[in-house]
Write a structure and sequence with these properties.
Elements (H helix, E strand, L loop, with lengths): L1 E6 L8 H13 L6 E3 L14 H4 L6 H13 L2 E10 L5 E8 L5 E6 L10 H4 L8 E4 L2 E5 L8 H9 L4 E6 L6 H15 L2 E6 L3 E2 L2 E2 L5 E3 L5 E4 L5 E6 L3 H9 L14 H7 L2
Parallel strand pairs: 1-2, 2-3, 7-8, 8-9
Antiparallel strand pairs: 1-14, 3-4, 4-5, 6-7, 9-12, 10-11, 12-13
């Protein structure tokens, strides 16, 4: 399987329409790939909160139309990163879009974990509630976005649903790039899955992006890693490795799902 992660530069100086056209051209140039991935909130900028209301769109909006046409032209599966979705109830969501080789929109995923504490996503966006996977001829894809990486429970739920390939678009800050590297590799090792993590580059909303997109195999081996600038990172993935490691080192079968509280904790909580 050949995959490409388009580490798009996202800046305050380029309009959403300009970036949409540029991203579509980059996707069309990936004919021959099997799967192409774009970063998180690359149309509006993940840190440009003031632009979210004006830039919000339905899942069949201008970004979806451009990405559908690009996926169809290149005949690739396209994870088009995420957009600011305006739901039917008017709420905003950080929503991923997946298109098949014909350009059909096959899955959406609303980001579950919202970053910001008392700012940004945590204030302006609603949370998704659904764990999302899809079976393809490439393997079963599981969806997560950026801040989701810090919550292993989601990834374990994705693997319980049969996921073999974890796709993670992001807009991770440059100052925490080493944590990004650690978490991406950790999710690959603990879930014994391929992780395709595509981060934005550039600076917008006062935040420099980490770049450093990665393709990681189930052993935690980095198969390909981007630098800090705009780049198309391509990797060949041997999907047989997923089944092989799960057979050779079947750690997932040793999970203990109900661990009793320590004795002192039980005593402290007793009436």
């Amino acid at each position: 399987m050949r995959v490409s992660l388009i580490q798009l530069l996202v800046s305050d100086t380029e309009s959403a329409d300009e970036r949409r056209a540029r991203a579509a051209a980059l996707v069309r140039g990936r004919a021959g790939d099997d799967l192409v991935v774009l970063p998180e909130l690359w149309t509006t900028g993940a840190w440009a909160y003031d632009d979210w209301q004006a830039g919000a769109e339905p899942v069949d909006g201008p970004t979806a139309r451009a990405m559908s046409a690009a996926a169809r032209s290149a005949a690739v599966w396209l994870h088009a990163g995420t957009v600011v979705e305006r739901g039917d109830d008017g709420s905003l969501y950080n929503t991923a879009l997946l298109f098949d080789r014909s350009g059909a929109l096959r899955r959406t995923y609303r980001k579950i974990h919202r970053y910001g504490f008392d700012t940004g996503e945590a204030v302006w966006m609603a949370a998704g509630r659904e764990v999302v996977t899809i079976g393809t001829e490439l393997g079963r894809l599981g969806f997560a976005t950026c801040y989701d990486l810090r919550f292993p429970e989601l990834f374990r739920a994705l693997v319980d649903a049969g996921t073999e390939i974890l796709v993670v678009p992001a807009a991770w800050p440059a100052r925490r790039r080493e944590q990004w590297r650690i978490l991406v590799r950790a999710r690959a090792v603990e879930e014994q899955a391929v992780v395709l993590a595509c981060c934005a580059s550039g600076s917008h909303g006062g935040m420099e992006q980490a770049g450093g997109s990665m393709a990681v195999d189930p052993w935690g081996t980095v198969l390909a890693e981007a630098g800090a600038g705009e780049e198309v990172l391509t990797a060949e993935i041997d999907m047989d490795v997923v089944a092989a490691i799960r057979a050779e080192l079947p750690v997932l079968q040793d999970r203990v799902l109900s661990i009793p509280a320590p004795e002192n904790a039980r005593s402290a909580s007793a009436p």
